[in-house]
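Progress against Task 2.4 (sequence-to-structure conversion) is shown through the following example record, which the project officer requested during the mid-term review.
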Amino acid sequence: MPEHDTILNINKPKGLTSFDVVRRIRKITGVKKVGHAGTLDPFATGVLLILVGRGATKQSNAFMELRKQYSAVIRFGLRTDSHDITGEVEFDHDVEIETESVEHLLPKYTGTIEQVPPMFSAKKVNGKKLYKLARQGKTIEREPNSVTIYDIQCAQINSRDYIFEISCSKGTYIRSLARDFGEDLDTGACVIELKRTAVGEFTIEDAISLKEVESEWNSIIA
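Structure tokens generated for the chain above:
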């Protein structure tokens, strides 16, 4: 790549949007052409690939196609309008979910599946972003998308919370998986923690913080 064309594996902190990170990187680097390869929700953390420079951003589609891995904590008995912990609570009930009941569903969600995107998402329908309609209290019909779940494993944390390790294709909504598991078990469910642990060969172990980029940018591009 030409000078200053760089792929940054950023460990996105909770509370920032993916575009917040892009703006921070633009400010730190002084490079105007900066993008990302796959949105993370503000409440989510983990691997966010930031493409710095014109040459890097031209590779965006290739990076978007890479397999994603997530670690998610899903709480059963809790349903929100966004299918995550940041949404408005629709109900919150104490439930006890047997591990066997959850594991029984895993084959259903392994392989290529049809998944309806959540209303609180950046997906566009008829030119309008769904989350903007959702904020207006509107719900519209969404066509399901074909996504691939390469592997999904779970382990019980307590009577209501399970940790899921998921390997999937682009376009997969972990929040939608939680919603669908909750519907199948007739309990409701939502994601209370979400971390992207890998994008292709870019892993959370190798990710760097925004502070590290700020202090080490000159050595990164050297």
